[in-house]
Amino acid sequence: MKSRQQRKQEIKRFFDRLSPEELDKLLERNGINDKESKEDLVYKIIKEEIEKGEI
Known about the structure:
Blueprint (H helix, E strand, L loop, with lengths): L3 H14 L2 H10 L8 H15 L3
């Protein structure tokens, strides 16, 4: 039986070997989408500018 540390190292090596594109595809397949939509990004920028008093 592998120790917790050994399992953590194996998982880390697996993800370290993936290219950014492969990682994006893997996350997308598993329902994890870290990409921000353009609308979300625009809303966030406007909100930050309002809070800073720039708008």
